[in-house]
Amino acid sequence: MHRPRLVSLRISALLASLALSALALESCRIAPRERTRVSAALVRAQEFLAQELAQWHAEERCASCHHDGDAARVLWSIDAGFDALREARLAEHRDRLLRSSLWCDPQGDPRFRDERLALVQRAAALQAALARGARIDVGAVETLLDALRRQQEEPGCWLGSTTSGLGGPVTYGPFLATALAISVLQDRADGASAEAVRRGRAWFASASPSATLEHAAVAWALAAPRDAHERAARDRSVAALLARAQRSGGFAPWEEGSSEVFDTALALLALEAQPASPAIMRACAAARGYLEREQELDGGWRETTRPAGGESRAHRVSTSAWAAQALAASHHPMPRSSLER
User: Fold this and answer.
1) pLDDT in tens, 7-42
2) Is the pTM of this model over 0.85?
3) Of the N and C termini of the chain, which has fewer Cβ atoms inside 10 Å?
4) Fold observed for domain 31-340
């Protein structure tokens, strides 16, 4: 007898809840996006990264150039059903993206300060924020992107003269840094950005990758080749990645060795960006399964360190961010990375 009234009350409560969420989103000035079904692994990863992002800033009062940018970039990029509160927290971080004093503290330990890496990190995170609909001062954005273009080195890469050894989650190295820089500048319409992208792609086409990370960066950046040289470089790196896929589904840093989450995530991102083939589809499914099995209870992943087996909170956050990005690219129909355009 009271069912119509009960239904009416429930509808009213639902409308009120939706109105509050809309107000919260509007206060953040973030454009809501269409929700898609995602895996439980990705939801847990998002929770982990959101918590780490908030805790790190509260505890350290800085935005680490080693991993904070990874967490922010991926949280802006993926959408596993954020509620209004988490959207608000991301909006707070949006304003920190442009404050360089928070990224490279001149009083901090110089062993963990890399202004050049911080610039790539900030630009990539900022691009993801803009794509999400965040409103950020245009002049500040252009200043940051101009600095990113000036940082490009003579051969066409980024970080080539400042990083030694195999790149990793908190150091990147020239291959991964160049891939991210290209992805940021490729969306700009100005001639200076177009020239920087051309030089970066030419560097990839003539590079000699050896590590899994390096092959993944080449295949990812040149997923949509513009000429025969780029296509040949892309095909060589894709073949190298497929040959390195282990029975577990994971990828080691080199041709042989134990699988690592970070290297597996990069390989999955690179292979997902390629035209589908039976071999690529099998490798992607196996890599996705490996990442899901390796996820820990709190939603993060064990850190990949160079050398392997180390312990580092920064490495763990960055490793987890790349794993989450790979799962997001693999699990549901998100737009392909701007690297493909």
Assistant:
1) 444 444 444 443 333 333 333 344 444 444 558 898
2) no
3) N
4) Glycosyltransferase (1.50.10)
What are the tokens at 184? Answer: 């940021």
H-helix or E-strand containing 113? Answer: none
DSSP letter assigned to residue 164:
-
Task: For residues 294 and 92, give the distance between their C-alpha atoms in angstroms, rounded to a whole number.
Answer: 31
The residue ranking higher by pLDDT, 287 or 331, is 287
Q: Are 183 and 127 in contact (CB under 8 A)?
A: yes
**Reduced to 3 states, what is the DSSP secondary structure of residue 340?**
helix
Q: What are phi and psi of 222, to 5 degrees?
A: -105, 30
For the chain, helix (H) and strand (E) counts, in that order, are 14, 0
Separation of alpha carbons 57 and 54, rounded Å: 6
Angle at 169 between CA 166 and CA 172, to 5 degrees: 55
For the chain, the domains span 31-340
pLDDT digits (tens, 9 = 90+) for 110-151: 555 678 888 898 889 888 888 877 777 788 888 889 999 999
